[in-house]
Amino acid sequence: MKQVIIVRSDLGMGRGKIAAQACHASIGSYKKTDPDKIREWEMEGSKKVVLSVPGLEELMEIYEAVRRTDISHYLVRDAGHTQIPAGTVTCLGIGPDTDERIDRITGELKLL
Hints:
The chain has helices at 15-30, 35-43, 56-67, 99-106; strands at residues 2-8, 48-53, 73-77, 89-97, 110-111. By secondary structure, the protein is of the alpha+beta class. The mean pLDDT is 97. One of its GO terms (cellular component) is cytosol.
């Protein structure tokens, strides 16, 4: 079991901003996950993997792919209080779910 966070690398966000956006994605997807999957994920150590995509187009392709499944997910749109304009899509949280199911969608991506 794992959770994956996918971050856009083209936005020029600082490390703190990336961390905050990744946290929004993690919590948002977590809150949509079946409680049985959450328990299993927590018992296995709550593994999280942070990946990157070069831009919005690639992130939206992954978002559309995960929407066609029953895997929990959460698309983050920034509030615009700091570094980027309001409504900017910054990252996507996927899962927790099984490694195999998530890897079918994200397996080709690179670590952040």
